[in-house]
Amino acid sequence: MSTVNEIPLSRPDVTQLEIDAVSAVLRSGRLSIGPVQEQFEAQVGAACDRHYAIACSSGTVGLHMALLALGIGPGDEVITTPFSFIASSNAILYVGARPVFVDICPRSLNMDPARVEAAITPRTRAILAVETFGNPEHMDAYASIAARHEIPLIEDCCEALGCSHKGRPCGSFGRVGVFGFYPNKQITTGEGGMIVTDDKRLADLCRSLRSQGRPVPATPTGMGSASASAAVGMGGAGVAASGAGGAGTGSWLLHERLGYNYRLSEVHAALGVVQMKRLPEIIAKRQKVARAYMERLMTHGEIVLPSISPQSVMSWFVFVVRLASSYTREERDRVIAGMRRHEVGAGDYFPCIHLQPFYRERFGHAPGDFPIAESVSQRTIALPFYNDLRERDIDMVCQTLDLMIRRENLSRK
After folding, report:
1. Mean pLDDT of 138-146
2. Which fold has domain 16-277?
3. Which residues are catalytic?
């Protein structure tokens, strides 16, 4: 049970502005497939310089729809990272394809571009690249590799809203990008996601897929891209302006393909609209917390800090350090457990996907398959990280981390 003194691992930043926006939607009587969703889509699309944005119920389902829209299915291979939250690989399995893992760069913690290119075979249908912890390094390299081999890059930017690399915003590198808005992300809608692309055909197909396979209304002649996005942003359902559900046209009960209920409600979108308006403020707060951690831990000889390319700008999804290479997984786990006993949140971001029980059983993966990812994974520690983390709490986190490491060192003697 939590206490008033606990420093949690994460905490959403919700103000009266978000509460008022949600209340306004509840009073409106329009709780789904409405104008607030369209506004949220336009905001995210503009933030990552994309023509089309399609709101959905989570980043995971966004990846699922992106793979479906690209025609990826049984017998296909998708190159991806073993060092990520498991959803990035699970989405590949949802469509019947096989995730082909490649080892990571020990500095960026993203896939090693040379290994990505070496893994391409005639069965490779896409590269699904994750901006691990929001780090966008190598995204331009993956895009170049994908272009050379004429396969799409799917950018899993669920952790990277507001980040950029070489002046390009995250979400703009792939044929399609997918954001997530879980409560520990830079902005939150409670649950939610967003697909972004410049490909109208792919965008229309995702709109249909998210709403039970209903047809997408034709774009009126002369509409610009922003208006076109709004015109087809109504869940792909042909919903009348009166909110009658399109019953007059019959399109609400017409289903052109197998689809899903992957829509985002107006209530969730209302949170997103306000959070997007606050995005510069939110990013500034997160950068301030990250700088404070860097300053306090940079001289610690047994901690490896995040490594960020000078060509990248971070909005900071999480703050993950790792212990020096001499530490074992068991020692790391005891450090985390000790921090939690002292009411300081900590986590082991991320256990390697290929060593998860289901993946080992299904694909025969074993320890040693991807040694860099495994070495990093067994030593990572996610520290408490959220917008309004106070200086004194950062001090407490760092002191507690140091104390637990010192205790672990004493037990070695």
Report:
1. 98
2. Aspartate Aminotransferase; domain 2 (3.40.640)
3. 185
